[in-house]
Amino acid sequence: MPGICPICGGKLNYRDNRLRIFKEYGGDKKRLLIRRLKCKCGRLHHEIPDFLVPHKHYTNEVLENVLDDVSTPADLSSEDYPCEITMKRWKDWLSRNRYQIEGMLRTIGYKLPGFTVTLLKSRISLLTGLRESGSDWLATIHRLIYNCGLRLTP
């Protein structure tokens, strides 16, 4: 089923597939074909499943656990896990993008039903609220942001 371009609202047409290699816990490498869709505005879009994060080689679960300090360099006894430098880079990425993510979530919230204006105008961090709500917070953030045509710096 064709999608809608988040940039211009036009119909997306199938173009081709692209191989995506990703890593899970334990360092298991897996391969997945990702559909690439093209819009009449010339933009190329990738259909990325929720368990993958754009521009990252590890699954959403691995990244979330590192960002939430569930997985730390001290816990990892295998070289198949992300190295300490990679973990630090991911944390720096979240720190650098924190205000941008917060702003995007608030902007998107005004357009989505169910968000109260009181919540959106409060000083409560939507990002922190999502992180505290449980697992898959990173997938939720990426799905909201990328499906609205917005982008985060990799």
Query: Main β-sheet: number of strands, strand sense, barrel status?
Result: 3 strands, antiparallel
The overall pLDDT average reads 83
| Proportion in β-strands | 15-25%
Q: Provide the domain count.
A: 1
The residue fraction in helices comes out at 25-40%
Radius of gyration: 17 Å
Overall form: flat
Helical element count? 5
Order of helices and strands: EEEHHHHH
CA-to-CA gap between the ends? 29 Å
**What's the total count of β strands?**
3
Question: In terms of structural class, how would the helical and strand content be classed?
Answer: alpha+beta
Describe the strand arrangement of the main beta sheet, using strand numbers.
1-2-3
The residue ranges in which pLDDT falls below 50 over 5 or more consecutive positions are none
Write a compact overview of the structure shown.
The mean pLDDT is 83. The chain contains 5 helices and 3 strands, in the order E-E-E-H-H-H-H-H.
Question: Could you characterize the architecture of this molecule?
Answer:
This protein is an alpha+beta fold. The protein has one domain. 38% of the residues lie in helices and 17% in strands. The protein contains five helices and three strands. The chain has helices spanning 60-67, 84-111, 117-121, 126-132, 137-147; strands at 12-23, 29-39, 44-46. Helix 4 (126-132) crosses helix 5. The longest helix is centred in the middle third of the chain and has 28 residues, at 84-111.
Primary descriptors:
154 residues; alpha+beta; three-stranded antiparallel beta sheet; 5 helices
Break the fold down into its secondary structure elements and pairings.
Blueprint: E1 12-23, E2 29-39, E3 44-46, H1 60-67, H2 84-111, H3 117-121, H4 126-132, H5 137-147
Antiparallel strand pairs: 1-2, 2-3
